[in-house]
C-alpha cells in the first residue's frame, strides 16, 4: 500500500499562529471570541492534535488555516507566507495545497468512490488519463482497490472515510486538516482510520492537524497536543508531556478519559474499607518509585498495588498506580516524603 509517484514525496507545510484572535459579532453590541490570542507552531511533517470540549474554538482554528474565516487580529503563516488579508483569488491557490477530511465524509452520493476521488482532479483540469491513474493509485493506497465502482451507500463508515482521505490526497497537498474525522466511527474503525492517517504522514511527509474531542485519538496519532478552552490554547507540548504531566484541569480531565489508571468513587470506597494507607503515585522514568519502595520494604512496610495502569507513548513509559502500605508509620512517612521530592503522590483518605 504505497504511492509510487515520486512527486508525492514532499515536505509538509509549516503552520504558524502569531497572536491570532477571531471575534464574531453576536448582536448589535455584543460579540464572542472564538479564538483568543493563539500562538503556536506546527512543524513540517508533524501531526498536531487540537483537543477541547464543544465551543472551545477548535473548528474555528481549522477554518482560519484554510482561509474560510479571517483572523480579527494576528498573523497566520503557511510556509512563511502570511495569509491574513489575502484576496480570495490568492487563497484559492493556497487551498489547493490543503486537504480536508470531514466528520460526515461529505461524499457525493451520485458519484462512485472513484468519482469522488476524481472530482478535485477534474476541478484542477488534470488530463483524463492522469486522473484515472491517480485515482487507481489512491484507491490502492487507502485499501479500497476493489471498491472504486461502489457508491457511498454501498460502503461502510470506515470505507467512506477512506474515500474521503483519498480525495483529500488527490491534488498532492502538503497539509491535511481533519475535523472530528473519526467521531462518527466505532472504536475498531477509528483505529484503522488513524493508522491510515499515520501512514499518510510517515510515507508522504504531510503535516496533519487533527481536531478532536477524544483524547484517545490524540494519544494514537499526535506528535504534539494543543488543549483549547474558551478560545485559548491553555496547554501545548509533546503528547508524552501532556499525557504524563498535564498542567491544567481541562487537560487532566481529557487524559483521565483515555487512561483509566485512578480508582473511581466506588472503587475508592471499597479500597478504604481495608486497613492501611492508600497513595496514588504518578510513574515516570524519573519518579524514583522503585527505589523508595525497596527501602520501605527493607523497613518492614508491606506494599501492594491495588489499582493503576502503565502505558508507553512516544517511546516513554508512564502511568499511575494506587498502592496500599501497611507497617511502621515513620517508615511510611519517609516513603511519602521521598516521593514528594521526585513525583506526584497523593494520599487517598475518607
TrEMBL record:
Annotated GO biological process: amino acid transport
Molecular functions per Gene Ontology: ATP binding; ATP hydrolysis activity
Organism domain of life: Bacteria
Record carries keyword Membrane: yes
Keyword Ribonucleoprotein: no
Gene3D superfamilies: 3.30.70.260, P-loop containing nucleotide triphosphate hydrolases
Complexes and interactors: Homodimer. Forms a membrane-associated complex with FtsX.
Family recorded in the similarity comment: Belongs to the ABC transporter superfamily.
Its job: Part of the ABC transporter FtsEX involved in cellular division. Has ATPase activity.
Name this polypeptide is given: Methionine ABC transporter ATP-binding protein
Annotated source species: Corynebacterium uropygiale
Amino acid at each position: 500500500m504505497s504511492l509510487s509517484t515520486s512527486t508525492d514525496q514532499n515536505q509538509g507545510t509549516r503552520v504558524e499562529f502569531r497572536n491570532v484572535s477571531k471575534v464574531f459579532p453576536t448582536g448589535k453590541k455584543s460579540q464572542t471570541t472564538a479564538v483568543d490570542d493563539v500562538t503556536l507552531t506546527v512543524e513540517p511533517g508533524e501531526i498536531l492534535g487540537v483537543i477541547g470540549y464543544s465551543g472551545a474554538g477548535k473548528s474555528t482554528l481549522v477554518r482560519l488555516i484554510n482561509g474560510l474565516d479571517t483572523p480579527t487580529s494576528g498573523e497566520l503563516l503557511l510556509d512563511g507566507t502570511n495569509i491574513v488579508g489575502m484576496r480570495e483569488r490568492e487563497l484559492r491557490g493556497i487551498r489547493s495545497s490543503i486537504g480536508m477530511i470531514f466528520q460526515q465524509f461529505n461524499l457525493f452520493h451520485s458519484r462512485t468512490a472513484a468519482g469522488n476521488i476524481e472530482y478535485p482532479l477534474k476541478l484542477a483540469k488534470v488530463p483524463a488519463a492522469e486522473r484515472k491513474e491517480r485515482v487507481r493509485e489512491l484507491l490502492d493506497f487507502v485499501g479500497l482497490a476493489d471498491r472504486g465502482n461502489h457508491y457511498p451507500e454501498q460502503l461502510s463508515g470506515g470505507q467512506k472515510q477512506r474515500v474521503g482521505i483519498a480525495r483529500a490526497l488527490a491534488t498532492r497537498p502538503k497539509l491535511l486538516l481533519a475535523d472530528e474525522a473519526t467521531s462518527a466511527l466505532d472504536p475498531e474503525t477509528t483505529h484503522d482510520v488513524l493508522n491510515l492517517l499515520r501512514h499518510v504522514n510517515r510515507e508522504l511527509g504531510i503535516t496533519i492537524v487533527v481536531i478532536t474531542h477524544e483524547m484517545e485519538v490524540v494519544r494514537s496519532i499526535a506528535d504534539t497536543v494543543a488543549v483549547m478552552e474558551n478560545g485559548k490554547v491553555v496547554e501545548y507540548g509533546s503528547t508524552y508531556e501532556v499525557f504524563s504531566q498535564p498542567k491544567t484541569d481541562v487537560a487532566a480531565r481529557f487524559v483521565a478519559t483515555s487512561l483509566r489508571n485512578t480508582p473511581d468513587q466506588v472503587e475508592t470506597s471499597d479500597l478504604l474499607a481495608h486497613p492501611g494507607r492508600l497513595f496514588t503515585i504518578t510513574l515516570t522514568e524519573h519518579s524514583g518509585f522503585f527505589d523508595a519502595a525497596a527501602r520501605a520494604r527493607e523497613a518492614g512496610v508491606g506494599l501492594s498495588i491495588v489499582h493503576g495502569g502503565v502505558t508507553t507513548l512516544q517511546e516513554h513509559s508512564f502511568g499511575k498506580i494506587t498502592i496500599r502500605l501497611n507497617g511502621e508509620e515513620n517508615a511510611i512517612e519517609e516513603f511519602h516524603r521521598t516521593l514528594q521530592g521526585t513525583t506526584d503522590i497523593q494520599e487517598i483518605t475518607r
